[in-house]
Specification:
Largest sheet: 3 strands, antiparallel
Shape: globular
Number of domains: 1
Strand order of the largest sheet: 1-2-3
CATH class: Mainly Alpha
Number of helices: 17
Distance between the termini: 49 Å
CATH architecture: Orthogonal Bundle
Strand content: 5-15%
CATH topology: Cytochrome-c3 Hydrogenase, chain B
Length: about 400
């Protein structure tokens, strides 16, 4: 009697398509995947524990390094949670600039996704084009903060500083050109026979399974679930903006690709609306016990210097309580749960990272597929190990 012997194979942690430190343990029957187990932890950083030993302000740079392709969203989720505990309102100009930067970050993250996803499947031209557009966003980051990635621009109460005068024109010019670039990507991929064969019908996960697993973001909407935190539980002023939430029908890799492309077009619409709403005004709340003084006061008066030094060295006390704040990160729901004991440091912080939760779906999506199809499934989840191994 013939018997079948299954083979166990390690994919990663340095396989090009696992994008770094993800290891997948595969059980194979020939080239067919019968079981898949993600093995994580190679990049573990201990961010949640580190946060207990830093002031609320000092925690902020740690959040940049979670999803390092969407640093502004990490900052925003954390800052909104802290502002909930402090019960402070931020100025309208700061609110509007936050929206602009959050949506630029969504574009930047999705550009890296489509570049790497396409390259994994063999489309190198899209990789080069998408990084060209990403560079323009990186220049905007540098313009407002001096840093190209981990910008650390948001603050409790508003922003670290106002944007320079050339900011608005630079963003408008880029957003005006972005739909044309998206048309280029679609022209190269959407009807490409190779792309269609590699993505249509691959990585299917039903709406019911996606909800059960806890998937969020484009991966959930690709399965036909109409859910977006920006619209359904608005934060940071998103209730004032008009945009569509795209959803898929066939629950496969191609649908998740299309959802993200439409999201990029909608992000451009939101940014244009925000630019139209951008009016002169302060970018920090009038809360001297929480917000740093303007630099000119620090440099030119002893009172300003002492004020700055006191907040920098001691932090600011946050009222006792607990809070959860979720934001629609480019990869899904990014949530911060913070417990305050009334001191200047979080008593406990727990992060709900979308990549970590979405990664659970990989077995459901890839089981029964061939090894080559797994490459497309990893790309369609758009994971970042920085927040998985937080």
């Amino acid at each position: 009697m013939a018997t079948t012997e299954k083979m166990t194979l390690n994919m990663g942690p340095q396989h090009p398509s696992t994008h770094g430190v993800l290891r997948l343990v595969l059980e194979l029957d020939g080239e067919i995947i019968t079981k898949i187990t993600p093995d994580i932890g190679y990049l573990h950083r201990g961010v949640e524990k580190l946060s207990e030993h830093r002031t609320y302000h000092q925690v902020l740079p740690l959040t940049d390094r979670l999803d390092y392709l969407a640093p502004m969203h990490n900052n925003l989720g954390y800052i909104l949670a802290v502002e909930k505990l402090l019960d402070i309102q931020i100025p309208e100009r700061a609110q509007t600039i936050r929206i602009i930067m959050a949506e630029l970050t969504r574009l930047e993250s999705h550009l890296v996704w489509i570049a790497c996803h396409a390259l994994d499947i063999g489309a190198m031209t899209v990789f080069i084009y998408a990084f060209r557009e990403r560079e323009a966003i990186m220049e905007t980051y540098e313009l407002i903060s001096g840093a190209r990635m981990t910008s650390n621009f948001f603050r409790a109460g508003g922003l670290s500083q106002d944007v320079p005068p050339e900011f608005e024109k630079k963003v408008r010019d880029f957003i005006a050109s972005m739909p044309g670039y998206l048309d280029q990507y679609e022209g190269l991929l959407t009807t490409n026979p190779i792309w269609v064969k590699r993505t249509v019908g691959n990585g299917v996960i039903s709406a019911e399974d996606a909800i059960d697993i806890g998937i969020t973001g484009p991966a959930l909407r690709g399965s036909g679930v109409d859910w977006d935190l920006r619209r359904d539980t608005p934060y940071a002023g998103y209730e004032n903006y008009r945009f569509e939430v795209p959803v898929g029908k066939n629950c496969d890799t191609f649908d998740r690709y299309k959802v993200r492309l439409v999201e990029m077009r909608e992000a451009c619409k939101i940014i244009n609306q925000a630019l139209d709403r951008l009016k002169p005004g302060p970018v920090l709340a009038d809360c001297p016990q929480i917000c740093y003084p303007p630099k000119e006061k620090v440099y030119n008066s002893i009172e300003g210097l002492i004020h700055h030094f006191k907040i920098a060295s001691e932090g600011y006390p946050v009222p006792e309580g607990e809070v959860y704040q979720g934001v629609e990160n480019p990869k899904g729901e990014l949530g911060f749960y913070i417990v305050s004991d009334g001191s200047s440091k979080p008593y406990r912080m727990r992060i709900r990272p979308p990549s970590f939760v979405n990664l659970q779906a990989i077995e459901k999506m890839a089981k029964g597929s061939m090894i080559a199809d797994l490459v497309a499934v990893i790309g369609t989840l758009d994971i970042v190990l920085g927040e998985i191994d937080r």
